[in-house]
Amino acid sequence: DVKVTQSSRYLVKRTGEKVFLECVQDMDHENMFWYRQDPGLGLRLIYFSYDVKMKEKGDIPEGYSVSREKKERFSLILESASTNQTSMYLCASSFHFLPGYRVEQYFGPGTRLTVT
Amino acid sequence: KQEVTQIPAALSVPEGENLVLNCSFTDSAIYNLQWFRQDPGKGLTSLLLIQSSQREQTSGRLNASLDKSSGRSTLYIAASQPGDSATYLCAVGRRQFYFGTGTSLTVIP
Question: What is the distance between the alpha carbons of residues A18 and B95, in angstroms, rounded to a whole number?
C-alpha cells in the first residue's frame, strides 16, 4: 500500500516563527503536492514538485516556499508564519500524469496548523 | 483554469437509500478523474479513479461514471449506510489535480 506520512498531526506556532512541514512517500512517485484546505474554499494547491529539486507554484504560493532534495521527501516552509496561515495542510503524491496512464493521487493524514 | 463544481454542497438521506453525487468540470482535456472520501479532520481516501478513456468504474456499492463531452461525473452509492457519512470530493487531473469543494453526506439511521 502507498503510504504518505506527514511529520505532525497538530502544530501550534506563534506569529513570525519559521515553520517546517514535512511529507514523505514510499512509492517512488515523481509528483508531490502541498495543499491547504479551508472551510468553504476547498483544497487549494500551494506548490507542487515533479522531480527532485524541481518545483512549480500552485494557486496560492505567497508566504510559502518548498524544498525537494530527495525524491521521497517534500517540505513546505512558512518563512514567517501569520495568523491567516492557520489551516489544514495536506500533502499528496502521484506518478507523472501521462495520457492513457492510470494515475492516482494519494494523500497524507494532514497537519492542522494553528498560528497564534 | 479548470473549475470543478459539486452540487449539492450537503445531502441528508435515510439509511438504505440509493443516492447520486454530482461533479462538473469546465475543461474536458483531462487524463483522470478521481473520487475521494474525507472524514472530519482527516486526510483524503481515494475511492475510485476513472481514466479519460473509460466511462465508469465500480467498487463494491460505489459506481462512478464519466462523460467528458458534457464535463460531468457522477458517484452512485447503493444502499447507503451511516458509515458512508463523510464529505465526498471529486478531482480532475491533467498536469495537476483540481478539486471541487465537496458534498457533505449524512446518512440517517
Answer: 30
How does pLDDT run across A36-45, given as a tens digit for each residue? 999 888 899 9
A95 touches chain B (CB under 8 A): no
- CB neighbours of residue B108 within 10 Å: 11
B91 contacts in chain A (CB < 8 Å): 43, 105
State the average pLDDT for chain B.
94
- The Cβ-side half-sphere exposure at A3, using a 13 Å CA radius, reads 6
**Pairing of β A111-115 and β A10-13:** parallel
B41, A90 contact by CB (below 8 A): no
Write down the pLDDT at residue B101. 92
Burial B28-46 (b: 16+ CB within 10 A, else e): eebbbbbbbbbeeebbbee
pLDDT > 90? residue A88 = yes
- State the smallest CA–CA distance between residue B91 and chain A in angstroms: 10
